[in-house]
């Protein structure tokens, strides 16, 4: 019996040496430890022995079994390592410089810039609103304090439609509708709205003139909104928009829908304010018109001008996109020219 | 507008003031300064010289050799001017001096050495007169530097006219001086005027204002015995520096007054104009304006006439025939105030915008008319003391502006500014600007000065501007608001719009485009696209593109056409507006629409169709959690670019939101025969009527499921929707889902039929299903389908 065990051990060790794959290893495991394997048989044969012999031989068989199991596990690791080495050695070296052919889709540059600005204003609590492109004369003019006979209403700048409506000439055309939608703000909760939109001017187009362009307007109305607040909001928001600590400067400016009205300048990014050709040596760039909403405009929007004050500002979105991407020809925006538009991947 | 600092300093003491700094403060407090010019710096060592000898130039017929006495010496130079004569006193530029860009050096001119230069007015920048040498009429010692008596050195700054549109008072130097006085907190000197009351007993001028709608005030006076023809040199310098061309004394004076106090005036030759009628004509008339153009005057345009005929277009331009001539010695001086809108519209209709009309457009102060006459007379009589006044001041004050009083208190101003400006400072500012201030502590009652009361300052908020701009916005302390922190109400529609764009661009690699709100008529015609009549623009400068689009698709197809030579595959979309006809109230039915077009030369038309369908499904599932349904819709066949067979309406729940279609082959062939084009249009407003389905989480079975693929043989024409309907009819509690995985068609193998392979998934929430259970479910299903004539392939 014991000799037999020793024979099995030697035979196993011999055979194991020749094993080079997991399949062969499994075969050998079955040949020794499987249901009809040699070690299993040997265990079965124990029952033919006397109790005394059974004890000794049993220990021997079990020891052999453990030994074989351990050897198989050990050998498996060696095989795995070898297989791993083989896979690495045979691995195909990829040409990482082969391009992937998928062309990314793009957003329109206006969408990209507009989204960025909307997100900035949202962080300061502004609601984003929208307005119609085809407007009534009332919304576009009367409601923002541009009465009949005002030069701004002279026919030539405005696209008038057959039914007396017009294509809105400025985003301010949405002011009245928005004021009426939200109503007078609650105490301590000023109305903060941003409303981008597409505007139209009836003129011939060239590299720097478009009849269709985007503006973005904002307003804030409350019981204690002041000029001081306007300057603060403009400074912090524009610093985010331009990703630098901008300096702002207010000058008197006249727009019928605000009183007082301002032209807001920012310090020139190119020279930092010391003067250069871009800023005509003034150190300042004229950026946006703003002001305190005219009491007539508030009143027409159903908001009591004796109780509420508001500020408003407008920004040329198309112009901003031109600045950001250094676009020289404004006609790009509505051209549908994919060679140009496919560049705006972000 | 150009502003001369020399002129300003007549009215405000500028001593010790840094002029550049002042101009900067002017920009911040009043109006934008666009440019600053330093005048006269380029004139150096030009002195009074007397020509004592004139000889012919040996080598030139045009040139002369001239000897000039400049006091200390007699200098010889070459001179090309035609008006050289012995005894002429002229400005003479000495060696080492400078005239404009020209440095005066010893140079040979046509072979003769010249040691200086006799100058014309143009060379000195005094006027544009280059006809000959400037003759100095005043009596100055020879050798005197001309800058001693000519105000050549000046700082002139240019104010952006656009920033003055609302300030009628700033269209002359005196108004600008008032601002500067307020900024500097220095007094404004009064204008020196002639006293017209001494002529009150003279006969008045025969003036009749027949059209009282368009006239506020008409003032005039007549004068005789005017002997001087040329205005003084310093007046000419100022006019030139301010962009006006000196002409003759009387014309220059009216221009000078316009530049000084902003009141346009007109000088008529009194010989031709004895009486004045201010009126419109019942019939159009022709009129020769003083620029020599014969103009048609319509019945709306206000005219100044004498008893017989028109002599001027009110507020715009005088007439050729009544204007000041060389032999004029008597004048009728008009100083009037006309209705701003009337002048602006007349000027627009005539296409004739003048310095005068652009001032009247701003709504000038009618109080100015008499001041202007008295100032004119003062200046004229200083220059030409022999002038005789021949009429009383004749003044028709037709319409007055209301006197405006505004009451406010400091608290009101503080609320607006958000800072604390003292009442004393407010009072000082307002007084300096000409307001009459009545104040008790912090309570103010102010009277708006007439020059600000025509339209500019009317309400309390206007007072805020006056106080704050002089205070300086740079001096404001800036603060955030005192307000509660509340979450922002975000707009789902807005988010959806951006989400749609992101999905189409990033998941389906499409390009977002923008296009015009009107149809491109020419391009549509070229492509054979027929659009229905829609509302039109009545005054477009590009008249052919006057129809507002009712659908997004034609423009997108145009873009496909424009890009097809460069790109064999395209995906474009736009979210834009259309006018889908008119609503019941007569207003445009403006809709927000998403238009998408996919085009490919590589993919089959069918694949392109299903790619676009997938994109639409994905978008709707993403933003609404609803799978849209595609249905037959004959309505869309009204467009000639829609495919009569392969087009479908899109439903979201029951709401129709748009359609998808293969491009009609007729239009396709006009773009490119090999290009497969599919497009869709979705009405975003309709889409947003359908609310999103909330996402519901469901437990999944812990037990393994079983999938069974069944290839079902159906009629070739059967749609998957029909098959799915039959499957749904079979009740089976363990069938968790099923979906189409393949369609096989082969006319030889399966004539008249096709095979749809559907994958069925069976699972139970309670236990593992047994094989025979599944078999009996499949058998049941097949039996049920057999009733519909569907068999297993």
UniProtKB/TrEMBL annotation, chain A:
<dbReference type="InterPro" id="IPR022911">
    <property type="entry name" value="Phe_tRNA_ligase_alpha1_bac"/>
</dbReference>
<keyword id="KW-0648">Protein biosynthesis</keyword>
<dbReference type="InterPro" id="IPR004188">
    <property type="entry name" value="Phe-tRNA_ligase_II_N"/>
</dbReference>
<dbReference type="InterPro" id="IPR010978">
    <property type="entry name" value="tRNA-bd_arm"/>
</dbReference>
<feature type="domain" description="Aminoacyl-transfer RNA synthetases class-II family profile">
    <location>
        <begin position="167"/>
        <end position="323"/>
    </location>
</feature>
<dbReference type="InterPro" id="IPR045864">
    <property type="entry name" value="aa-tRNA-synth_II/BPL/LPL"/>
</dbReference>
<dbReference type="GO" id="GO:0005524">
    <property type="term" value="F:ATP binding"/>
</dbReference>
<dbReference type="GO" id="GO:0000287">
    <property type="term" value="F:magnesium ion binding"/>
</dbReference>
<dbReference type="Pfam" id="PF01409">
    <property type="entry name" value="tRNA-synt_2d"/>
</dbReference>
<dbReference type="Pfam" id="PF02912">
    <property type="entry name" value="Phe_tRNA-synt_N"/>
</dbReference>
<keyword id="KW-0963">Cytoplasm</keyword>
<dbReference type="GO" id="GO:0004826">
    <property type="term" value="F:phenylalanine-tRNA ligase activity"/>
</dbReference>
<keyword id="KW-0067">ATP-binding</keyword>
<comment type="similarity">
    <text>Belongs to the class-II aminoacyl-tRNA synthetase family. Phe-tRNA synthetase alpha subunit type 1 subfamily.</text>
</comment>
<dbReference type="InterPro" id="IPR002319">
    <property type="entry name" value="Phenylalanyl-tRNA_Synthase"/>
</dbReference>
<dbReference type="InterPro" id="IPR006195">
    <property type="entry name" value="aa-tRNA-synth_II"/>
</dbReference>
<keyword id="KW-0030">Aminoacyl-tRNA synthetase</keyword>
<keyword id="KW-0479">Metal-binding</keyword>
<keyword id="KW-0547">Nucleotide-binding</keyword>
<dbReference type="GO" id="GO:0016740">
    <property type="term" value="F:transferase activity"/>
</dbReference>
<dbReference type="GO" id="GO:0000049">
    <property type="term" value="F:tRNA binding"/>
</dbReference>
<keyword id="KW-0460">Magnesium</keyword>
UniProtKB/TrEMBL annotation, chain B:
<dbReference type="Pfam" id="PF01588">
    <property type="entry name" value="tRNA_bind"/>
</dbReference>
<dbReference type="GO" id="GO:0000049">
    <property type="term" value="F:tRNA binding"/>
</dbReference>
<feature type="binding site">
    <location>
        <position position="462"/>
    </location>
    <ligand>
        <name>Mg(2+)</name>
    </ligand>
</feature>
<dbReference type="InterPro" id="IPR005146">
    <property type="entry name" value="B3/B4_tRNA-bd"/>
</dbReference>
<dbReference type="InterPro" id="IPR005147">
    <property type="entry name" value="tRNA_synthase_B5-dom"/>
</dbReference>
<keyword id="KW-0460">Magnesium</keyword>
<keyword id="KW-0820">tRNA-binding</keyword>
<dbReference type="InterPro" id="IPR002547">
    <property type="entry name" value="tRNA-bd_dom"/>
</dbReference>
<feature type="domain" description="TRNA-binding">
    <location>
        <begin position="40"/>
        <end position="147"/>
    </location>
</feature>
<dbReference type="InterPro" id="IPR009061">
    <property type="entry name" value="DNA-bd_dom_put_sf"/>
</dbReference>
<protein>
    <recommendedName>
        <fullName>Phenylalanine--tRNA ligase beta subunit</fullName>
        <ecNumber>6.1.1.20</ecNumber>
    </recommendedName>
</protein>
<feature type="binding site">
    <location>
        <position position="465"/>
    </location>
    <ligand>
        <name>Mg(2+)</name>
    </ligand>
</feature>
<dbReference type="InterPro" id="IPR012340">
    <property type="entry name" value="NA-bd_OB-fold"/>
</dbReference>
<dbReference type="InterPro" id="IPR004532">
    <property type="entry name" value="Phe-tRNA-ligase_IIc_bsu_bact"/>
</dbReference>
<keyword id="KW-0479">Metal-binding</keyword>
<keyword id="KW-0694">RNA-binding</keyword>
<keyword id="KW-0547">Nucleotide-binding</keyword>
<keyword id="KW-0067">ATP-binding</keyword>
<comment type="subunit">
    <text>Tetramer of two alpha and two beta subunits.</text>
</comment>
<dbReference type="InterPro" id="IPR033714">
    <property type="entry name" value="tRNA_bind_bactPheRS"/>
</dbReference>
<dbReference type="InterPro" id="IPR020825">
    <property type="entry name" value="Phe-tRNA_synthase-like_B3/B4"/>
</dbReference>
<dbReference type="Pfam" id="PF03484">
    <property type="entry name" value="B5"/>
</dbReference>
């Amino acid at each position: 019996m014991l000799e037999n065990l020793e024979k099995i051990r030697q035979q196993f060790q011999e055979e194991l040496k020749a094993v080079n794959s997991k399949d062969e290893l499994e075969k050998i495991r079955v040949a020794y430890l499987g249901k009809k394997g040699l070690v299993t048989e040997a265990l079965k044969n124990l029952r033919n022995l006397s109790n005394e012999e059974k004890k000794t031989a049993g220990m021997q068989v079990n020891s052999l079994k453990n030994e074989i199991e351990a050897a198989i596990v050990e050998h498996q690791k060696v095989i795995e390592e070898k297989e791993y080495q083989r896979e690495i050695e045979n691995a195909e070296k990829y040409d990482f410089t082969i391009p992937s052919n998928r062309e990314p889709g793009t957003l329109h540059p206006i969408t990209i810039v507009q989204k960025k600005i909307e997100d900035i204003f949202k962080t300061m609590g502004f609601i984003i609103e929208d307005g119609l492109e085809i407007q009534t004369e009332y919304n576009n003019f009367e409601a923002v304090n541009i009465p009949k006979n005002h030069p701004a209403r002279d026919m030539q700048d405005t696209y008038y439609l057959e039914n007396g409506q017009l294509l809105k000439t400025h985003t301010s055309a949405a002011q009245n509708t928005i004021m009426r939608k939200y109503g007078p703000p609650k105490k301590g909760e000023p109305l903060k709205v941003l409303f981008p939109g597409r505007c139209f001017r009836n003129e011939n187009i060239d590299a720097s003139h478009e009849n269709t362009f985007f503006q973005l307007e904002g307003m804030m109305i409350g019981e204690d909104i002041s000029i001081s607040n306007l300057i603060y909001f403009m400074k912090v928001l524009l610093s985010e928009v331009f990703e630098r600590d901008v300096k702002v400067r207010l000058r008197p400016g006249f727009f019928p829908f605000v009183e007082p009205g301002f032209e807001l300048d920012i310090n020139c990014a190119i020279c930092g304010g010391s003067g250069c050709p871009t800023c005509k040596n003034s150190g300042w760039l004229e950026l946006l018109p703003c002001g305190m909403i005219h009491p007539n405009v508030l009143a027409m929007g159903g908001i009591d001008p004796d109780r509420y004050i508001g500020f408003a500002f407008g920004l040329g979105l198309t112009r901003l996109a031109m600045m950001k991407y250094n676009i020289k020809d404004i006609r790009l925006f509505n051209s549908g020219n994919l060679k140009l538009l496919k560049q705006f991947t972000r | 507008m150009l502003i001369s600092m020399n002129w300003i300093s007549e009215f405000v003491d500028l001593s010790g003031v840094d002029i550049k700094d002042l101009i900067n403060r002017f920009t911040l407090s009043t109006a934008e300064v666009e440019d600053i010019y330093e005048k006269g710096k380029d004139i150096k060592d030009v002195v009074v010289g007397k020509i004592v000898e004139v000889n012919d130039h040996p080598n030139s017929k045009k040139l002369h050799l001239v000897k000039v006495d400049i006091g200390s010496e007699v200098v010889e130079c070459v001179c090309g001017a035609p008006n050289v004569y012995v005894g002429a006193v002229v400005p003479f530029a000495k060696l080492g001096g400078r005239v404009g860009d020209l440095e005066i050096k010893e140079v040979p001119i046509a072979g003769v050495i010249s040691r200086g230069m006799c100058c014309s007015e143009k060379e000195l920048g005094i006027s544009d007169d280059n006809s000959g040498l400037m003759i100095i009429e005043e009596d100055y010692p020879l050798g005197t530097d001309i800058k001693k008596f000519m105000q050549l050195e000046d700082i002139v700054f240019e104010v952006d006219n656009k920033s003055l549109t609302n300030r009628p008072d700033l269209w002359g130097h005196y108004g600008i001086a008032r601002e500067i006085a307020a900024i500097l907190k220095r007094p404004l000197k009064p204008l020196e005027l002639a006293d017209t009351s001494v002529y009150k007993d003279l006969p008045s001028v025969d003036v009749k204002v027949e059209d009282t709608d368009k006239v506020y005030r008409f003032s005039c006076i007549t004068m005789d015995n005017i002997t001087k023809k040329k205005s003084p040199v310093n007046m000419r310098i100022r006019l030139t520096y301010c962009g006006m061309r000196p002409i003759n004394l009387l014309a220059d004076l009216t221009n000078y007054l316009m530049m000084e106090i902003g009141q346009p005036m007109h000088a008529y030759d009194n010989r031709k104009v004895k009486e004045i009628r201010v009126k419109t004509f019942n019939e159009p008339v022709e009129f020769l304006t003083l620029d020599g153009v014969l103009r048609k005057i319509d019945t709306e345009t206000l005219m100044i006439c004498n008893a017989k005929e028109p002599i001027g277009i009110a507020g715009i331009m005088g007439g050729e025939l009544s204007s000041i001539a060389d032999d004029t010695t008597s004048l009728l001086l008009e100083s009037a105030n006309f209705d701003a809108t009337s002048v602006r519209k007349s000027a627009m209709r005539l296409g004739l915008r003048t310095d005068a009309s652009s001032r009247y457009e701003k709504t000038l102060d009618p109080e100015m008319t008499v001041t202007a006459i008295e100032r004119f007379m003062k200046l004229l009589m200083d220059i030409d003391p022999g002038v005789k006044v021949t009429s009383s001041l004749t003044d028709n004050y037709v319409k007055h502006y209301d006197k405006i009083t505004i009451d406010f208190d400091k608290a009101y101003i503080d609320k607006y500014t958000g800072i604390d400006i003292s009442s004393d400072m407010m009072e000082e500012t307002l007084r300096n600007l000409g307001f009459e201030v009545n104040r008790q502590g912090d309570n103010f009652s102010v009277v708006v000065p007439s020059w600000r009361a025509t339209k500019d300052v009317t309400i309390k908020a206007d007072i805020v501007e006056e106080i704050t701009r002089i205070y300086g916005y740079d001096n404001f302390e800036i603060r955030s608001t005192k307000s509660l922190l509340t979450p922002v109400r975000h707009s789902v529609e807005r988010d959806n719009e951006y989400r749609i764009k992101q999905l189409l661009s990033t998941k389906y690699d499409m390009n977002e485009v923008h296009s015009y709100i009107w149809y491109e008529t020419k391009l549509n015609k070229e492509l054979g696209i027929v659009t229905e009549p829609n509302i039109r623009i009545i005054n477009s400068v590009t008249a052919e593109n006057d129809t507002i689009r009712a659908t997004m698709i034609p423009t997108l197809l145009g873009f496909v056409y424009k890009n097809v030579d460069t790109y064999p595959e395209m995906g474009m979309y736009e979210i834009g507006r259309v006018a889908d006809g008119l609503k019941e109230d007569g207003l445009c039915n403006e809709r927000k629409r998403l238009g998408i077009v996919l085009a490919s030369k590589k993919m089959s038309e069918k694949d392109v169709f299903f790619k676009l369908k997938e994109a639409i499904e994905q978008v709707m599932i993403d933003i609404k959690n609803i799978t849209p349904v595609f249905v037959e819709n004959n309505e869309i066949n009204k467009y000639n670019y829609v495919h009569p067979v392969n087009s479908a309406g899109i439903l979201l729940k029951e709401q129709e939101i748009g359609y998808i279609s293969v491009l009609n082959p007729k239009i396709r062939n006009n773009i490119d025969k090999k290009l497969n084009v599919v497009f869709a249009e979705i009405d975003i407003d309709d889409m947003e009527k359908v609310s999103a389905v909330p996402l519901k989480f469901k437990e999944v079975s812990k037990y393994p499921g079983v999938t069974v693929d069944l290839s079902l043989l159906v009629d070739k024409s059967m749609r998957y929707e029909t098959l799915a309907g039959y499957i749904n009819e079979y009740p089976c509690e363990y069938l968790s889902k099923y979906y189409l995985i393949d369609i096989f068609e082969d006319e030889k193998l399966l004539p008249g039929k096709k095979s749809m392979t559907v994958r069925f998934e069976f699972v139970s929430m309670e236990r593992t299903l047994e094989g025979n259970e599944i078999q009996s479910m499949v058998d049941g299903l097949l039996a049920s389908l057999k009733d519909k004539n569907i068999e297993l392939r």
